[in-house]
Design goal:
With about 400 residues, this protein is an all-alpha fold. Helices cover about 80% and strands about 0% of the residues.
Length: about 400
């Protein structure tokens, strides 16, 4: 596989995805217990810290515009360095205010990688196989998550370490991912390209309105779950770090086994049908999580919801590739991330305020409502009829 540029790119992206998954999800496995047990944050503060964490995602379109001449691979490497520095910086925090700078720095890294991994992944293959490749990368990322969570489970079960050394190790693993991706070849449709594709600085087009809507609704639903999902297990059901790791291990195993299959289903049956089923499943899973009256049911619905999370962005991204020209994809992904995080900033804060007066179930019912609105948008998707004017011209030129 190393003998072809596409093969080398695939392996480099796979190593980066695994390292990113290990560092990011390893952090996910411990940060709730760390914030509550060491920094003494309370329930509503989790909504506030989530909103702060999503601010870099909101400004991602402007960061992308600023670095639009920097190649995607170098930008990804920079992002992984930022993630490593941010994770390492957690050891210097001692309360809500001192953890904020490190949350922001690590968040810059996370949000850039979450965007650029899709644009890099789509250069590895033809359009008709985009879902399969992105699904495989999601499975590899989940494999990294599985490894990271298993290591942390082992460490905390045997009391081999405390939180601070673990954060430093996770930061170092993120730097490994940066080294792996910096040499990623310049590809188009899986073949070596003679020139680097320079994306446009900013893209905001009516042609891509459904992609923007899907991103905004995904952000609202997703961040409600991210803000309060683990908090419910820790605060309401009293799960320890080891127990949380077991739940996340189950989620990672399900994701690793199923993500590649889900990507192939998107290629085979189209985005509208699969995204519709995903959002129906969201309503069932999030509603079930809110109503679960015992820890086993709650953990089951948590695993299902966690598995569904990466599938919506894959479907939205393959839809975008079918209607946009190549130079529009990276900046449009960034614009979609900005819409996603506009809702991701506002909704958790409002839910955190509401949480002072109502039960923890209410944010999950609100998330079900956003999934219902997503279904309304999904039923209007028609990639062949919704291509941008530039894409129509490009396809006509290619066929001629």
């Amino acid at each position: 596989m190393w003998r072809t540029p596409g093969g080398r790119g695939y392996i480099m992206l796979a190593v980066m995805s695994a390292a990113f998954g290990l560092a990011y999800f390893g952090n996910q496995a411990i940060f709730t217990n760390y914030f509550q047990g060491v920094l003494h944050l309370q329930g509503p503060m989790f909504g506030y810290i989530t909103a702060i964490r999503e601010v870099p995602g909101f400004f991602l379109v402007f960061l992308t515009a600023l670095f639009y001449r920097v190649s995607q691979q170098r930008l990804t490497a920079f992002a992984l360095v930022a993630l490593g520095v941010g994770l390492g910086g957690f050891v210097l925090a001692y309360d809500f205010w001192t953890v904020i700078p490190w949350v922001l720095i690590s968040s810059v890294g996370v949000h850039i990688v979450l965007q650029t991994q899709y644009s890099l992944g789509m250069t590895l293959t033809e359009e008709s196989q985009s879902g399969a490749v992105l699904g495989k990368m999601a499975a590899i990322l989940q494999g990294g998550a599985l490894a990271g969570t298993a290591i942390i489970l082992f460490v905390f079960l045997l009391n081999l370490s405390s939180f601070h050394p673990v954060f430093l190790v996770l930061g170092g693993i993120s730097l490994v991912g940066a080294v792996a991706i910096v040499g990623f070849p310049h590809l188009q449709r899986g073949r070596l390209s003679g020139a680097t594709l320079v994306p446009r600085r900013l893209v905001f087009r009516r042609d891509y309105r459904y992609y923007y809507l899907l991103s905004a609704l995904d952000g609202a639903r997703q961040q409600l779950f991210f803000s309060f999902g683990l908090w419910v297990l820790v605060n309401h059901f009293r799960l320890s770090v080891a127990s949380i790791c077991i739940v996340l291990l189950a989620a990672a195993i399900v994701g690793m086994v199923s993500s590649s299959w889900a990507g192939r289903m998107i290629d085979r049956y189209g985005e509208r049908r699969i995204l519709y089923l995903i959002n129906v499943a969201y309503i069932v899973a999030l509603g079930g999580y809110a109503l679960a009256n015992n820890v086993i049911l709650a953990c089951f619905f948590f695993v299902v919801s966690n598995f569904l999370m990466p599938l919506s962005p894959i479907g939205a991204t393959t839809y975008l590739r079918k209607i946009a020209v190549p130079e529009d994809i990276a900046p449009t992904l960034a614009m979609g991330a900005t819409f996603l995080h506009a809702t991701a900033i506002v909704v958790p804060v409002m839910a955190g305020i509401v949480l002072n007066f109502v039960g923890y179930q209410v944010p999950f019912f609100i998330a079900c409502g956003f999934a219902g609105l997503g279904i309304v948008v999904i039923l209007r998707l028609d990639p062949s009829a919704q291509r941008s004017a530039a894409r129509v011209a490009m396809d006509a030129s290619r066929h001629a």
